[in-house]
Design goal:
The chain is mainly alpha-helical. Among the domains are: 14-188, no CATH class; 372-473, no CATH class; 479-541, no CATH class; 544-596. The protein has 31 helices and 3 strands. It has helices spanning 14-25, 30-38, 53-59, 67-74, 77-80, 86-97, 104-107, 125-135, 164-169, 180-185, 193-211, 221-230, 242-253, 272-278, 288-302, 324-333, 338-345, 349-358, 372-383, 388-394, 399-408, 410-436, 447-453, 455-469, 479-499, 509-516, 519-524, 530-539, 543-560, 567-573, 584-596; strands spanning 121-123, 160-162, 187-188. A 3-stranded antiparallel β-sheet has the order 1-2-3. α1 (14-25) packs across α2. It binds zinc ion. Residues 124, 126-127, 152, 154-155 line the site of zinc ion (ZN).
């Protein structure tokens, strides 16, 4: 059972929450966190349809989460579910709860849909800023990860993307949008002005699809057919006017990008995917994005400006949206790029690309070369720390061109990264110190970030604070003075014992220690009390010394009482039973003394 689990933010993905867990837990590596979370350090958490959810739900504290709730609230499954058969839904749920969700996309037909099952981590720069302000931490939104969502449904701006191969290479990590690696690799998705409207509509529809309750799903087959009927694409006898559908879709597709998830729509010919959706259900499932695209396309077809009037003869051969002869001349004779040709013809680049493909024109896919002088000027601006957007605007270049120049000059990228990090550190340090004035260090929002990115500084701050609050490093006891005092006390006690009248008492080590009343202190702090211990060693009386002193005293007593100092008398008076420790010559000297002084 985990000690804690972060509360989720609005529309946050499971991958994101686990990333925040890792960061908050302060574990050195993702492996440690994964072992805690799912019991397997090698496990790969998929950002869209993750597995091992039962094991995770069991490990979470408080029994707040079940595996099904994790699936419904934190994964992309609710987006796919309405387009799946009940058997597929059951299979997917079971697989995601089990040990691994690998293969689930294949079984759900997501790979066969030609939309692809790649995971690209996407985020909105505006959301990222707002989240950091509101929650103190940015995170991955589920809606941004949906296929075909290239723009933020909330802010209407193009998303930034971590390419799928980068995601794959970092698959055993738990990244967050403000990770250094993410910031270095993420690129804004290129969206042209022509594509913006359609992509915004699709983003909103996708968001609606993700959050729709069952029965409210926007782009069902019935809803599409109703729109098709209104647009005159299905006649009174429920027959689909295939040529008309083809024409409407061809027009619609020119407003969409031609790559990635949308590439399938540009393959030409009568779009069978759309017809399949409009025809009566045969129990087969389709990708939700196809539903949403068709629904959106038919919605546009209803509007009077783009729409196809039922009366309009549309069965005639379709004319291309651009002047074929002029396009051929621009591309083949003049060697113009797609972008230049599009500008000259007054249509989108995508339209030109599609038409060029249709006419089999060879177009160089290489990017337009930027002259060396211009490149140097751009580099100088970048090195000065100006933002990519402002440099692009100043030199009338696109954002991708500036990023391309940056990629070609890794030194500048590093320098900018260092500069950016320095600015970020300064900001974090400032807000940390401000917050720390009123709360403890570990409670501060920036503590974890600084621990990961600015550890040396943080350690220093912690150390300084500790020194200020706990001046316990300065000793409260003056050991030298105490040593001197104890030494004197022991010497005095030694003399007192020797001078005491009556039968001699032994000046043993224990007796000397006991007299100080600080036996424990002296024994425990031997290295702090060298003088005390030296005098203790010097003054302690050995048994032999003590017996000699008793013999001397006994002799004095016998002489005072005018008794002969015979050996047995001496020993009895001195209370010595065993003479093993006494030199016999020493005893004999007293006996002789008695003989000479009767
Ligand atoms: Zn946004």
């Amino acid at each position: 059972m985990l000690a804690f689990f972060p509360s989720t933010f609005p529309d946050e993905s499971l991958y994101s929450v686990l990333g925040r867990y890792h960061r908050l837990a302060g574990n050195a590596s993702e492996r440690e966190s994964l072992r805690e979370l799912v019991g397997d350090a090698q496990h790969v958490i998929m950002a869209d349809l993750p597995g091992t959810l039962q094991r995770l739900a069991d490990a979470l504290p408080g029994k707040r989460w079940t595996a099904d709730r994790l699936i419904d609230e934190l994964t992309l499954f609710p987006y796919f579910a309405p387009c799946l058969s009940p058997a597929q839904v059951a299979y997917a749920r079971q697989t995601m709860q089990g040990a691994t969700a690998e293969g689930v996309k294949m079984r759900l037909g997501l790979l066969a849909s030609r939309i692809g099952g790649h995971i690209r981590l996407r985020f909105c720069q505006e959301c990222r800023r707002q989240d950091a302000d509101t929650f103190g931490q940015c995170y991955w939104h589920r809606v941004h990860q949906l296929p075909g969502v290239w723009m933020c449904p909330l802010h209407g701006c193009a998303l930034s993307e971590l390419p799928s191969n980068t995601v794959f290479l970092n698959r055993q990590r738990l990244l967050l949008p403000d990770e250094k690696a993410v910031e270095a690799e993420a690129r804004p998705i290129g969206v042209t002005t022509v594509q913006e409207k359609a992509l915004r509509r699709l983003a909103s529809l996708s968001e609606h699809a993700l959050h729709a309750e069952l029965g409210e799903w926007p782009a069902t087959r019935e809803a599409c057919r109703t729109r098709a009927q209104t647009a005159g694409l299905i006649d009174g006898a429920s027959r689909i006017r295939v040529a008309s559908v083809d024409a409407v879709l061809a027009q619609y597709v020119t407003t969409l990008p031609a790559e990635s998830e949308f590439a399938f729509a540009h393959s030409g010919g009568v779009p069978s995917w759309a017809l399949k959706l409009l025809r009566k259900s045969r129990g087969t499932s389709s990708h939700p994005l196809k539903h949403l695209m068709l629904y959106d396309c038919l919605g546009e077809a209803q509007s009077p400006c783009i729409g196809v009037s039922p009366m309009m003869p549309i069965a005639q051969p379709r004319k291309g949206p651009v002047d074929e002869i002029r396009l051929r001349q621009l591309i083949e004779a003049e060697g113009r790029s797609l972008r230049e040709s599009a500008e000259l013809l007054g249509v989108s680049t995508t339209t030109v690309r599609v038409e060029a493909g249709r006419l089999n024109l060879t177009v160089s896919s290489r990017p337009k070369r930027i002259k060396t002088g211009l490149q140097q000027a751009v580099l100088a601006d970048l090195l000065a720390g100006k933002s990519v957007a402002s440099v692009a605007a100043a030199h009338s270049l696109s954002l991708p061109s500036i990023y391309r120049i940056l990629r070609m000059n890794p030194g500048i990228l590093d320098a900018r990264e260092r500069g950016r990090l320095a600015v970020l550190k300064a900001k974090r340090r400032e807000s940390f110190l401000a917050e720390n004035a009123s709360t403890s260090m570990r409670q501060c929002r920036d503590y974890a970030w600084l621990w990961r990115n600015d550890r040396a500084w943080l350690t220093l701050v912690v150390k300084n604070a500790r020194n200020q609050t706990e001046p316990s490093c300065i000793p409260t006891v003056d050991w030298a003075v105490r040593d001197q005092r104890l030494k004197t006390e022991i010497q005095a006690e030694h003399l007192r014992i020797l001078d005491a009248p009556g039968r001699p008492r032994r000046a043993s080590r224990t007796a000397l220690l006991r007299a100080t009343g600080e036996t424990d202190t002296i024994l425990r702090n031997a290295y702090k009390l060298p003088l005390t211990h030296a005098s203790l060693a010097r003054c302690s009386e050995s048994i032999e010394q003590y017996q000699r002193r008793r013999l001397r005293w006994a002799a004095e007593q016998l002489i005072a009482e005018h008794l002969p100092t015979q050996r047995w008398r001496l020993l009895r008076m001195a209370a010595i039973r065993s003479t093993a420790n006494v030199d016999p010559e020493f005893i004999a000297s007293f006996v002789r003394m008695a003989v000479t002084h009767p």
